[in-house]
Amino acid sequence: MKSQEYVLLEDEYGAHNYKPLDVVIERGEGIWVWDVEGRKYMDCLSAYSAVNQGHCNRRIMDAMCEQAKKLTLTSRAFRNDQLGPFYKELCELTNSHRVLPMNSGAEAVETAIKAVRKWGVMVKGVPENEAEIIVCRNNFHGRTITIISFSTDPVSTTGFGPFTPGFKVIEFGDAQALEAAISEKTVAFLVEPIQGEAGVIIPPDGYLRDIRRICDEKGVVLVFDEIQTGLGRTGAMLAEEHEGVEADLTLIGKALSGGFYPISAVLSNSEVLGVLKPGEHGSTFGGNPLACAVARTALKVLVEDNLIGNAATQGAYFMQGLRAINNPKIKEVRGRGLLLGVEFHPEAGGARQYCEKLKEAGLLCKETHETIIRFAPPLVITREEVDWALERIAPILSQ
Ligand SMILES: *Cc1c(COP(=O)(O)O)cnc(C)c1O
Prior knowledge:
Elements: H1 3-13, E1 25-29, E2 32-35, E3 40-43, H2 46-49, H3 58-70, H4 83-94, E4 98-102, H5 105-124, E5 132-136, H6 145-148, H7 154-157, E6 167-170, H8 175-181, E7 186-191, H9 207-218, E8 221-225, E9 249-252, E10 264-268, H10 289-304, H11 307-323, E11 330-336, E12 339-344, H12 352-360, E13 363-364, E14 366-368, E15 372-375, H13 383-397
Parallel strand pairs: 3-13, 5-6, 5-7, 7-8, 8-9
Antiparallel strand pairs: 1-2, 2-3, 4-10, 9-10, 11-12, 12-15, 14-15
Helix pairs in contact: 3-10, 4-10, 11-13
Pyridoxal-5'-phosphate binds at residues 48, 104-106, 109, 140-142, 192, 196-197, 225, 227-228, 253.
């Protein structure tokens, strides 16, 4: 079948909750993908940073196949031989004390919300049903009803109410706003260290340290959503490391499986996860042996193949190349590691047209919020491949 026929099938039989570029991908390897016509593209989105280790990474694939032949799911009614080692390895790599495994990113966020509320009632002494969680404007934490209850994007919220109460929105990057918003009922501050979906928004220097100090002073749990920024993407295992800060809860997902399988986790540095007792929270697939085997290898690949250092090196080089593009329509080029954003002035007429042209030139990326293009290739990209990308990007973004 030709691309157009697949597009028609999706549009006819599928819900229209996405507006993808019309490229029908059938195969991937490393940073490259191929469409059904055999055209080759560089993937500069990495499934929103889920394939940091590159498409169809050989070692992860082997681990997945091997585990799939042995055991895939026991439920947590029983123990399995992958879960304990997964916990230990993940804790050692992220300097955490305890892990709670889930499947999607949104479930990790939901888990954190439940845990901090319970902690608030059990430990902090907040009256039942009165806990407050502070979040930031333009956040993205997922798509469930509770999570969209504190989204500030009307596209995400309109028509979906009634919403879950208990959230307070402040400006991102403003530590004083956090200090002012905290009350004795505040149990947690949930924030992305870099806002990804909002358009790669980097907070002012010192912000993470300041919010850490404020949360310590006020007895508020600091929760970092590192589902997009974590696991090497920004040139550090976790983006919080750029300011030498540790959250009380850190949420990861996406690249935890290298794109093979939905796996997420709540990492805990404090005793917050300790408030959850048997039966109070769970997931049939959470912590299953197939997920754990895949995640163990996906983490090994990040470390042993030096993908984190490579993200820092190639990211800096990529950003330098993007900054050299001279076009008054470009408002700003920003990023950290291989999470890069190019923002256009509104007069440029939107970022989508550039993404369409880049696709024709063999490079896949996606606009976010109308005026911003995010470049986030798999972390296995080489300097020569960054040059290849820049040779195509520069003439198109100069238009
Ligand atoms: C993608 C993402 C999520 C949601 O993850 P899903 O697996 O799509 O549910 C949550 N937070 C951030 C920062 C994300 O980028």
